[in-house]
Specification:
The protein is α/β, with parallel strands linked by helices and 316 residues long. Helices cover 42% and strands 15% of the residues.
Length: 316
């Protein structure tokens, strides 16, 4: 049994699911158990249910999940040791102002043997090779934000991350425009990146100037680009930013499963430092796509493992 307490919205959930699927394909298909109980407090929800993913047992009660998916004694001991060590490393990191660097080194070196032996896969940042275990139950923790975790099952993921529902009638003209033009998906992430004081310092990377530079760059590398703007605050973008003549805006009312399909249907991409826009470019059906991304992913930690080798990077 493979167990995971899910974190974040759709983009984060896709990274976590994709990592679990790749593990299952490599080491044998098993029962997948996903706990969404920790999302309810943040007003997030299970978004995977809207896609053609494999069946999974779903928990919305986190305490029930812990009771029914219990670790064995040795896993509990190993888990407690890992948590205690992470707290110690975090304290040392704050003193040296380099917490994430120290934590990552710890995760790569100190916890690797514990993970492999006891079926505890605890990855906060970056990529770590996930080896098999003889334990019947495996427990995954973290965001697993790297395509290296699932690079061997991309075609499978493209099928499974197809929305269950048909294209919405109101968007058929937009789909037609996307198909018939050299469409460029421009994803402008705002929301809690700019509304939450903590997130502004940690995650707000892509200023309007970044998008203006990226649009200029895209104009120079493809012919007749048709820019299509997507945002979680589309009205702010309409009123405060400037785009080339003929730019089209998604109306901002689409459910996330429809929005991601509209986005990945585009031919080229200007993305933000968001997992949602990351998946739009990854699920693209265009083998000749051009992807422009910010050279900085997070202000407090640079996750180089999330980048793909053929991206064009622009300094925000």
């Amino acid at each position: 049994m493979i167990c995971k307490t899910m974190q974040g919205r759709l983009g984060n959930q896709m990274f976590q699911y994709a990592t679990l699927r790749a593990y299952m394909e490599k080491y044998g298909n098993e029962k997948l158990v996903l706990d969404f109980g920790m999302l309810e407090d943040k007003s997030f929800k299970d978004e995977l249910c809207n896609f053609k993913v494999i069946p999974y047992k779903k928990y919305v009660d986190h305490e029930k999940f812990k009771r029914e998916c219990q670790m064995d004694l040795m896993q509990k001991i190993a888990f407690k040791k890992m948590i205690a060590m992470r707290k110690i490393i975090a304290i040392r990191g704050r003193k040296t102002h380099n917490e994430d660097s120290i934590l990552r080194k710890y995760e790569f070196k100190k916890s690797k043997k514990l993970m492999e032996k006891f079926g505890l896969y605890f990855v906060n940042q970056g990529y770590i090779e996930l080896k098999g275990t003889k334990k019947n139950n495996k427990y995954f923790y973290g965001f697993f934000e790297s395509p290296k975790y699932f690079c061997n099952i991309k075609k499978q993921l493209m099928r499974e991350f197809t929305p269950k529902n048909k294209k919405m009638f109101k968007n058929l003209k937009l789909y037609d425009l996307i198909e018939k033009t050299n469409s460029v998906c421009v994803t402008i992430r705002r929301g809690d990146f700019v509304d939450d004081a903590k997130n502004v310092g940690n995650h707000y990377v892509c200023t309007p100037d970044y998008f203006y530079k990226a649009i200029d760059k895209m104009n120079s590398i493809i012919k007749h680009p048709q820019f299509i703007i997507f945002s979680d605050d589309i009205e702010w973008v309409r009123q405060n930013m400037f785009f080339p003549k003929g730019t089209v805006f998604e109306d901002g009312t689409d459910p996330v499963w429809e929005k991601i399909r509209l986005m990945y249907s585009c031919k080229h991409f200007i993305i933000s430092n968001s997992t949602f826009s990351w998946w739009a470019q990854y699920l693209s059906r265009n083998n000749e796509k051009k992807v422009i991304a910010p050279s900085i992913w997070k202000n407090y930690y640079q996750n180089d493992d999330i980048y793909e080798p053929d991206w064009i990077l622009i300094k925000p």
